[in-house]
Each structure stands twice: as C-alpha cells, then as structure tokens.
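Entry 14. Two folds queued back to back today. First construct below, sequence then structure tokens.
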Amino acid sequence: VQSADEVSYHMIEVAYSALKLQRGQTEPWTPAPKKLVLAEAGISPQKTEVAAAVEAPKAAAAAAPKEPLSGSALKKAMLRFIQKEGEGRPEGVSLAAVCKHVDGTPAGDATAALQKLVDAGEIYTTIDEEHFLCL
C-alpha cells in the first residue's frame, strides 16, 4: 500500500461490488428491436414517402447544436447520464462520453463540473482519473 487513498478506494470498491451482487442480474435497458412487416400492414409507397418526409425535420432538429449547460443544470445532467450509462459497467463512464453528452458545453466547464461532483461525493473515479461512477 503506497497511500491511504488506496485503502479507501478498495473499501469503496468492495462495498460497490457487494451491492451489485445483492441486486442480482438485471434486465438490459435496451428493448428488443421491433420487426417491420410492410406486407402484412398493407403500406403503400405514398405512406412510406410521407413518413420519410416527416422524419427529415426530426433529424435536422437533432443535428442542431445544443445550448451550453452551466451550474447546477450541468451537474444534474452529468449525474443522470453517469447513473444511466454507468449501470453494469464496473469501469465507469469515460470523460469523453460525458463531454459528448453535454456537447454544447465547453470541455473545461464539463471537467470542472465533474470535479465538483467528485468533491461533493456524488461520483467517484474508477480505473483512472477519466472514468466515473455514481455512489
């Protein structure tokens, strides 16, 4: 043991592993893909073209840049993302994935918000300083 931090880290890791084992196997969050049956539904080509035209504005809206988050809204968004994405991943969520989730926010602000969450005890680093999990 080279520092007291290693002992604390090990104790937290043991407690986390015990909680994971007590919960048991969880169902995957991703639902099974829906099967597309065009012949049975009797969809005409016109309806298919209209559906494609309706989906185009949705894609354009999704491609629009997000407005940057800051303060408590940024921390809440990051915490929810880490809780959702970190489930079942012992290595945690990478800094790059968190920054990509809040892509409208500068990377420096995102890193500072993550450090505040670590300092507050809401999240902790796992395999290195760039992977996080919720407590």
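Second construct, same run, same settings:
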Amino acid sequence: METVTKAAGIKDKIFKRISMGYIVGTRVEEAIEACRKIEPLGFSATICPWNNKGDDFRIVADAYIEAAEQIIHHKLNCYLSIKTPAIGYDESLMNEIVSVARKGKLRIHFDAQSPDTADRNLSLFEKTLSDYKNLSYTLPARWNRSLRDAEKVIEMGIPVRIVKGEWADPADPLKDPEEGFTDVLSALSGRARHIAVATHNVPLLKRCMGIVREKENSWELEQLYGLPMQTVRMARGEGIPVRFYIPYGRACLPYGLSMIKKKPEMLWWVIRDLIRADSFKIS
C-alpha cells in the first residue's frame, strides 16, 4: 500500500512539472506580460485561461472577461481563446464575454474539445456569430466531421485554426491525424478567410507549406507555448507569421493518467517532455 501511495505521489509530481511547462503562470497579468515580451520579436499571441473540470461556469466566464479586458487595455496583437463547455454553452455568459470584446473589436476564438461537445460548440458559435462577427473556430483533423464543418467555416467567412485534436473520432478511431490535417487544409486552401496551422511537427508543416503555396492564402503557424521551436524557426525562415497560444491558470495536464491507461505509448511523450530542451520560454 505504501509503495502504491509513493508511486502515485511521484506521478503527480511528474505531471505537475510537465503541465507547468505549458503555461506562463496562474494570473492573467503573467500572460499579458508574455504577450508584451514576444511582440517586439515579431510574434503575435492568443491567450486562454485554463480551468479545471468542474469549475463554476460563472467563474470561468469571469476569467474570460478579465482576459478580454486586459488584452484590450494593453492594445496587444492578441485574441482570446475560450472553451465553451467550461461556461456550460450558456448564451447569457457568452453575451457578457462578447459585450466586453466588442468594446475593443477583440477576436474571440472557439477552441475544440471532445467530439461529444462539437455540436453544442458549433451551435453556440453560429448563434454568437449572428450578433458578433469577430470570431474564429477550430477544426480538429482527427474528426471526420471537420471536412463538413470546413465548408460551413468557408461560407461564414471566418478565420479557422486546424489542430490534430486530442480526442479521436469515435466513428473512426484509427484515422491518421496527419492525413486528416492535410485533408482539412486542402479543403480550406484558397477558400478560407485565414488559416492558422497549429502544429509543432516539422514534416507536417512542410506538407502544409506545399499545400498553401499552391493557392493564394492568408495563413500563419500557431504553436503552444513551451513546445519545441523547430517549426517556429522554419516558419520564420520562410516569412510565415507565427502566433503563440499562451495558456495560464490552473493547468490542465496535457497527458492525463486516464489517457495513459488507454494509450500506454503516451508514457514516452511524458519522458520526452521532461527532457526536451529546445522549447520556447519567456524569462
């Protein structure tokens, strides 16, 4: 029993250390300071308060409102990313966030989470878009529905972010995320208003560059704070704009224990993250 307890404690410490590699701190002021430091280097940003599962919807909405106010106050080249399940898809809370964003013409981005949240996320997005146009949306490459949703995004005329996605599509759990990524990008290329390619995978970025160069596109590389910098250097060398996704708050651990039970190979990801040295840090 004692051995099990010690092992659990070690795991907790490891995961806490990993999660802290992806956030700039616990307060919005730390995220704002990070944005102010990277702007002179030619980088733009998006910030997102990370909450824990079960947090009160009102508290999460207030964190989004505070973030919006701070971005506007400091006149940053930055937009706000939100997770609508964290506010219970509540239209009244969403309207409060929009009310603040409207004052500074701030873009609000709808992040993607698990497949079971997709319909309600998109529904709230469409309702919000009818009142406030400065919105953008995420399409996960691992979901079959993303190709259909890409057509909606194009018709809406909004910016879009492509991600691999943390959760597999239950209808197609073995779907190759990289193939899905390039399929979605190909569908958007030359048709979407603006595309953010969110990856730190060098070969995938090379493939993406080949696709977007075939047609006229407005696009950028977007990368999570704390990840390796090879893709950033590649993008900068090719004149591609780079934006950092800067989370703060109480970290949501990127590789939860429950996920590792389902996918034991993810333990390698944990070890890799602990020893990585080529990551972007703000001092």
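Quick look at the second one. The first strand starts at residue 44 and ends at 50. The two ends are 42 Å apart (CA to CA).
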